[in-house]
Amino acid sequence: MDEMKMVKELRNTMPEMPSSVEDTVRRGLRGLAAGDRPADRGRAARRPSRRFALRAGLAGALVAAAGVGGVVALPDGGGPVPGTSPALRLVSATELGDRAAEAAERLPYKPPSPKQWIYTRFVTASGFDMNRPWEGVDPKGRETVEQWERADGKAGAEIHAGKLQVTDYTANGDQSDEKRPAFHPGNYHTLPTDPDALLRRITAEVGPNDPQGVFDTMSRILEHPLPPKLRAAVYRALPKVSGVGAERDVPDAAGRRGVAFARTDHLGDRRSIVLDPATYRYLGTRHAVARTRTDKVGDRTVTYRAGTVLGWYAHLDQGIVDRPGRRS
């Protein structure tokens, strides 16, 4: 078995591992393998098996590699690493989904009336230029936004230049009722709370050949207040979407670090849904380039470099209010 190959496969959505780090990891794994010497066999009953030692060493190698390559994208499967905190024991999207669902099911919830409003305050990274998307956002720039959305999904509001602007989604125009997402606060109550049924429902709407679209739809749903059973179903359905894994130590736009569901699309862009590592509360999303690629923009060739952040969103506050413009 080539343990170094296993390390590379587990890191296949991350930037290239420097050769110096690769050498260090390889020496550590060889050292673990060499530990099964004849003179040690008498102590076999008192020490872990070679397979367990290699597994633990592999986990340690991944943690060390994370220090130079960013977050560790972990595939679905495997068991916990002994002696670590709950967040560091995370090894699969399924485990993350179950933990987050159990936490969601314990949350208190009072559904808003149809004419009440959902108030959300969030922060995003600024500086994105639609004419130069390969440059991403400004890693240090931030913009705080306040939005209101009517609980029946029929209207929204936002503060622009210090003034509250209300939009009727059922009126004609660019933001008419037909332009809204298929799933919104006005119809969340119609969604099934069984994870498999929920996945089938969203897939039927988005399309069977668009797992990234399914992932993004679930991400948008999580931005709103939800009945506990529906939020739990989303968390348990996410690991069932093709290509979804788990990440550790993912930063959000507010500077908090969490665990995340993550998926890398066919272009090499990774989208992450970030949760608090202790409470599994929804924190926000991150969109970054996982693999360097080139693309054509008009008559020029541009490069999207690995690590470039394309979008960053962090949830700061949310509540139910009686009218737009109110915060409590």
Element order: H for helix, E for strand: HHHEHEEEEHHHEEEEEEE
Helicity range:
25-40%
**Which class of secondary structure composition applies to the elements?**
alpha+beta
What is the terminal separation in angstroms?
59 Å
Any low-confidence stretches, pLDDT <50, length ≥5? 1-25, 31-85
Gyration radius, in Å: 23 Å
Total domain count: 2
Strand fraction:
25-35%
Outline the biggest β-sheet.
10 strands, antiparallel
What is the overall silhouette? globular
Helical element count? 7
Count of DSSP E strands? 12
Question: Would you tell me the overall average pLDDT?
Answer: 79
Strand order of the largest sheet: 1-6-7-8-9-12-2-3-4-5
Describe this protein's structure:
It contains seven helices and twelve strands. With 328 residues, the protein is an alpha+beta fold. The strands form two sheets. The protein has a ten-stranded antiparallel beta sheet with strand order 1-6-7-8-9-12-2-3-4-5, with helices on one face. A two-stranded antiparallel sheet has the order 10-11. Helix 4 runs antiparallel to helix 7. It comes from Actinomadura namibiensis. InterPro entries: CU044_5270-like. The chain crosses the membrane at residues 52-74.
